[in-house]
Amino acid sequence: MKLFAKPWSFSVTLHILLVVMVVFPIVTISTMILQVYKRDLLQQTTERTLQTLHAVTYSAQQEISKIEYAAAAVGVDRDVLSTATALSQSDESDRFKYINELTLALSRYTYSMSSQVLAIHFFYKDGGVYSFKQNLTKDERELRSEAWYRKLLQQKDNVQFLSLQQTLLYGVTVPLAVAAAIAPSDYHTLSNVEMIYFSLNEEAFDKILRQQPNDDSTYVIVSKEGQVVTASYNWDQASLTSAKLEQIRGAREGHFIDQVSDRQMLVTYASVGDTGWKAIQEIPYSKVTANYERIFKFVLFATIAVIVVFLLISFYLVHSLTRPIHVLVRKMSLVMSGELNAKIGTSKIAEMAALGRTFNHMLDQIKLLLRQREEQEQAKRKAEFAALQSQINPHFLINTLNAIKLMALISKADNIRNMTNALMRLVSSSFNRGGVLIRFSDEIANLKHYLYIMEIRYGNKFEVEWHIDPRAESKYLLKLLIQPILENSIVHGMAGKETSGKIVIQASIHEGSLHIVISDNGEGMTDEQLEAFRTRRSPHTFSGMGVANVHHRIQLHHGEDYGIILTVNEPKGTKVSMKIPIIHRDQEEERPLKLEA
């Protein structure tokens, strides 16, 4: 299961697909073609051998018909029956005459098959038997008691082909002979012949097999009982087993593969008429499949060649496809390690070339974003530096202000002394605390010192209202965020105003953010001025930063979701809305900041 759990590479997947979708089908189709060809070859060979066997069975049937015709002709010939009857009733002086007449009469029917006829026996109704050519070695009473004899007595003038019978003749060494018999009809009232029995050798059947081609095939004709009627010279007696005989008895014709000795043989068989005989042909299976073996070797070689050529081409194509991917993986590994100059070269494949261009464009964008981030960090540091420019020598500045305060005290100039004291506290509070953050309650205290100075400067021309949510006083924010906005409201909003002005400072916590709103009823700004104010930097004042710089500082520190929005304060004046995240900070300044969601 680990093999399937681990992801496969693209090249391995392609190779497996090629084998499954191409190599496997080619091998399967080649195997099927060979099997179909082998089956057709076996079928064609079987059909040819059956045609040959049909010729053999036809010839054998012709010979059997010839024997049956001769037997029937003899059995219905009145002259033959009369002569045979006279022979049985004659004395010794006339016996030779009737024998010659009977021999002459029989020769007319057996002339064409005289070499086959071993003997013809005439069984008489009142006992006794006359044998033509060869005498019987067996008692006639035993023959009369056999089943075939009794059956023929019930079927007059019907020739019965008895297939192979044991040879019962003097001077004949063959153990079996072809036999046929006929019982003459009772209509021949003057005949004393009860049965005519013919014994013939297998010479005619031997001729049939000798006419077959002289090749590796073997032929044999067997009787229903499994007795060999005739066989070709190269036939092996051991091949005729009881199992094979049992197999061929079940059908009129057919074929099967049989193991003979140490080799396989294609056995084909066909029936010889209704005699129960079977003509069998055996062909070495290796000879039948000789063409198949040649075709098999050719197809095997062609299949291997096609597969090898295809695999070489496919592996080349797979390598061409996967090489750009491997290059991409290596380049991405270099990018992960920080190497942003790992560009991908051009590829001959359009998709890979597009992928390479996309990858190179991505690297360019990453470098551009990094450069922009670096520029933002630099701008952030510059903003922080600008916010703290006045801290060039804070101790010297505070000591100088303290000296001015003492001189005002000696000169009894209370306004100068109070104003100097407020400025000294403001500067001391801004410079003597570490970090860039300040508690909102401390920032409010600093703003009050600053407003005291501005009230003295402008002669109490404005008043300030405070609406601070108590929950906001414990939160932290960047130093010097609100002072530039107040300065902008006083300098630009209240400077030309003859009536008393009003500045409202609000702070609340809403939807997870700290919202600070500073509104005045001063001169206000037109829409064009508001748009221009959003796109330019404010003049530097006491803190060294304008409203636009404050907005930029907020976004540098907290992101583009935060910042300042300038709107018109109805019915007259300007409203500055500031949104910053809620920042919690422990009493220890060195601890990291925690932002509230």
Automatic annotation (TrEMBL):
<dbReference type="InterPro" id="IPR003660">
    <property type="entry name" value="HAMP_dom"/>
</dbReference>
<feature type="transmembrane region" description="Helical">
    <location>
        <begin position="295"/>
        <end position="318"/>
    </location>
</feature>
<keyword id="KW-0808">Transferase</keyword>
<keyword id="KW-0067">ATP-binding</keyword>
<keyword id="KW-1003">Cell membrane</keyword>
<dbReference type="InterPro" id="IPR050640">
    <property type="entry name" value="Bact_2-comp_sensor_kinase"/>
</dbReference>
<feature type="domain" description="HAMP">
    <location>
        <begin position="319"/>
        <end position="371"/>
    </location>
</feature>
<keyword id="KW-0472">Membrane</keyword>
<keyword id="KW-0812">Transmembrane</keyword>
<dbReference type="InterPro" id="IPR036890">
    <property type="entry name" value="HATPase_C_sf"/>
</dbReference>
<protein>
    <recommendedName>
        <fullName>histidine kinase</fullName>
        <ecNumber>2.7.13.3</ecNumber>
    </recommendedName>
</protein>
<keyword id="KW-1133">Transmembrane helix</keyword>
<keyword id="KW-0547">Nucleotide-binding</keyword>
<dbReference type="InterPro" id="IPR005467">
    <property type="entry name" value="His_kinase_dom"/>
</dbReference>
<dbReference type="InterPro" id="IPR003594">
    <property type="entry name" value="HATPase_dom"/>
</dbReference>
<dbReference type="Pfam" id="PF02518">
    <property type="entry name" value="HATPase_c"/>
</dbReference>
<keyword id="KW-0418">Kinase</keyword>
<dbReference type="InterPro" id="IPR010559">
    <property type="entry name" value="Sig_transdc_His_kin_internal"/>
</dbReference>
<feature type="domain" description="Histidine kinase">
    <location>
        <begin position="478"/>
        <end position="584"/>
    </location>
</feature>
<keyword id="KW-0597">Phosphoprotein</keyword>
<feature type="transmembrane region" description="Helical">
    <location>
        <begin position="12"/>
        <end position="34"/>
    </location>
</feature>
<dbReference type="Pfam" id="PF06580">
    <property type="entry name" value="His_kinase"/>
</dbReference>
<dbReference type="Pfam" id="PF00672">
    <property type="entry name" value="HAMP"/>
</dbReference>
<keyword id="KW-0902">Two-component regulatory system</keyword>
